Amino acid sequence: MTPVLTVGIPTCHDFNGLWPTLIDLHKTQLADDLSSRIEIIVIDNAPEGKHGKPNRDLVSQIPNARYVPFTDKQGTAPAKQEVFRQATGYAVVCLDSHVMLMPGVLARLVNYWESETSDDLFQGPCLHYSMQDSHGRSRIVGTHFSERWGDDGMFGRWGVFEPAKDPEFPPFRIVMNGMGLFSAKRTSWLGFHPEIRGFGGEEGYVQEKYRQAGRQTWCLPWLRWVHRFGYVDGVPYTGLDWRQRAKNYLLGYRELGYPDLSGIRSAYTKPGRLTEVEFDDLMKELGVVPRLRGQLPSSLESRTPSQKKATVNLLLTELQPGEEELLEALPCTLRGRKSGAVLCNIGCPSMQSQLVTTFDCRKHGLVTLGKRRKDLINCLNCEQRIDDLPDASSRSKLITKSHQSPVDRRQNEVELIIGVLSATHHRDKREAIRDTWAPIGDDVESVFIQGDANIMSLSNTGTLRVPCKDTYDTLIHKVQHFCRWATRFRSFKWLFKCDDDTYVSIPRLKEFVRTLQADYVGRNYGGFASGGAGYLLSRKSALVIADAPDLDVGVPEDVGVAELLKNAGILLLDSKQFEGDQRGPWPSHSNNLITGHYLTPARMREIHNAFCVSPVQR
Known about the structure:
Blueprint: E1 5-11, H1 15-31, E2 38-44, H2 52-60, E3 65-69, H3 76-86, E4 91-95, E5 99-101, H4 105-115, E6 121-123, E7 126-132, E8 138-142, E9 144-149, E10 155-159, E11 172-173, E12 181-185, H5 205-212, E13 217-219, E14 225-227, H6 242-256, H7 261-268, H8 276-286, H9 305-315, H10 323-328, E15 341-344, E16 355-357, E17 359-361, E18 365-367, H11 373-381, E19 385-387, H12 392-395, E20 414-421, H13 427-435, E21 444-450, E22 457-458, E23 463-465, H14 475-489, E24 492-499, E25 503-504, H15 506-514, E26 520-522, E27 535-538, H16 539-547, H17 557-567, E28 573-574, E29 595-596, H18 601-611
Parallel strand pairs: 1-2, 1-4, 2-3, 6-13, 7-14, 20-21, 20-24, 21-23, 26-28
Antiparallel strand pairs: 4-12, 5-14, 7-8, 9-10, 11-13, 15-16, 15-19, 17-18, 22-23, 24-27, 25-29, 26-27
Helix pairs in contact: 1-2, 6-7, 6-8, 13-18, 14-16, 14-17
InterPro entries: Fringe-like_glycosylTrfase (IPR003378), Glyco_trans_2-like (IPR001173), Glyco_trans_31 (IPR002659), Nucleotide-diphossugar_trans (IPR029044)
Protein name: Glycosyl transferase family 2
Main location: Golgi
C-alpha cells in the first residue's frame, strides 16, 4: 500500500542528532498507529564516515524505515533532493536530522495530506527550546523568514507573526522560512538547483521558485517543530567556505533573479570573505550578468545563443530614472500581437531608424536595442508613437500617446477603483488580466500596484508605482499606498483590492456594490477577508488605512487590514461570492461567484473565454 506521507531525514556526520529525531518519530508512529500510513527514509550524505555504521544500524531497527547512502553530491540541498527521489508517499515532509515534531503534529500532517491536493509548499513555526513562556503561551523562534541578510552570510532572518502563536490560527502565506522542515506533494515538488553544493542557498530559493510558478508558500501554525542550533563538536557539513556559499546564491540568482544581486555581493565581499575581484570572477565563471531591477527571465541556459547575447547587451546597460516605466509599456510577441515592433509616426524628429525590435518577456528576455540607444528612449517618450500596428494602412493613422503621469490630477468620480497587487516580474499575469477582465469604461478604473519606486507615480499603462520594496513582505504597504493615492487623487465610492492571479467578474462586482451598505466586505477566513479572493473598502475604510501610520512589515496584508479596521470599529461583512480557495470553484455561468483565486494566466484566459461563449453576465 502506498504511504500517505514519506518522512525524509537527510543527515551528514550527525548520529547524535539523528538518534533523537528517529526514535521520537518511531515512538510517535507507534503511539498514534501511523506505521501503515507513513514511511521513513534516512539519506546519509557521509555513509563512509564514523557515523555511517551507527546510522545504518539504528535505521535497520525500525520496520518501516529505510537507509539510503548518498555520495553522488555533497550538500544539504542535494541530500534533501534525494529524499524526494527516493520517496514513494503521496506527500513528503523533509526534516533535518536534529529536528523534533511537537506531539500530535505527525498524525495531523498525515490526515492533512489525505485530503489536501495542493501543489503549494507548506512550512510551520519553529519553537524555542522552552516551547512556552511564563504565561503558558507558545514561545516561537520564527513563523517565517524576512528578506534580510545576516552577518553569517545567510539570506533570511527569523520573524514572528504574533497571531500564529495560536496553533489553530488559519494558514497564512509567507515569503520564506528556514528549510529545517517543509512539506510538499511528491509529484509536484519543484526541486533545488541541481548545481548547489555544500551549505546555503536553499532558503528563499525554493519559495521564490514556487512563487514564480504561480504557487504559494504557507505557514501552517499547527505544524510545529524544534530545531537544534549549535554543535558541541562543530558543524558537520562540508562546503562551508565562502566561495561555495556565494556560488549557491549566484546560481539561484542566475535562474530566478533572486535574491537581489547587490545583496549577495554585499554579504560575500565583507572582510575575510571574497574580494570584489574574486566575486566578479565567480560571476563570470557562472555566466551571471546583472539584471534590470525586478526582471526575472528564464534561466540563460534555456535561451538560444542570440537571445542570450541580446539579453546581456541590454542588461549591462544602466537604466536611467523613468526608463523602467517606459520599458513596461513596450509590446511583446507573447501578448497576442503580430509583431514586436515600436514604430514612430512618419516624420517623428526623435527617431532616426524608424523601427526598433522589442521583446520584453520572460521567454525572450529584454531586447530593446535600436540603432542608437538615445533614439529608442526618445521614441519611447514621443507623443506621436504608433505601437505594434498590424499593417501599413493602420500605421498611416496617427496615434497620440501622452506620457504625463496622472497621479497628480483628479478624475471625475468613478463608482469603483480596482487595485491589483503585482510585482515587476509578474508581467505575464498583468497581461492576462489586461487581455481578459480588466475593466474598460468611465465608471471603473483599475491599477496594478508595484513597489521599488522613489516616489508615487502612475504610468499611462495603469501601473501605480509606490515607494516600498517590491516583495511579499511589503504587500501591506502596497495596500496602504493604494489607499493613500486613491483618497488623495481620486473621487470614488468603492475600492476593490485583489491579487494578480485573481479573476474578477466586473459586471457582477458592479451589480454587487450597486445597493451595498457596508464598509468592509469579503470572504471571511478566520476574522479577516481573504486578500486573494479580494475585498471591498468604502471610502471611509480607505481613509482609515490611508491615515494610519505605516503598517508593520511582515504581517500578512489581509490580516493587518482587518485588524486596523476592527480597531476603528469597522467589522467585516462576509460574502461567499468572493472565492479564495486554490481548488476553486471559479466564476462561471453556473454560479454567482465574483472572483476566483490562484489562477495561472492560461487558466484565467480559459475562464474568461468560457464567460464569453454566451451573453450571460461575466
